[in-house]
Amino acid sequence: MNKYEVMVIVKPAEEEATNAVIEKIEALIARVGGTVEKVDRWGKRRLAYAVKKFTDGFYVLINFEAAPAEIKEIDRVLKINDEVLKHLIVKHGK
Asked: In three state form, how does the secondary structure of 50-92 look?
């Protein structure tokens, strides 16, 4: 198991809707066999450029452990999620 972090920019919405999207991402990581270590909510910020006609987004940084083979599945699901504007998965080096 390797350590990763994913930065997700979620569509700006009500707090309950944003929390539901974050919980879905945490459940996705758990479903593929990973473990979430830390969830850091950065809050609503202005984007540098419009993404899918949105100028603001809710930033979330999630640190987790997962097998390298499962990262493709996490990436695939985040790409097709309509609530996620952008995401980036990075492996922590040792």
From this structure: EECCEEEEEEEEEEEEECHHHHHHHHHHHHHCCCEEEEEEEEC
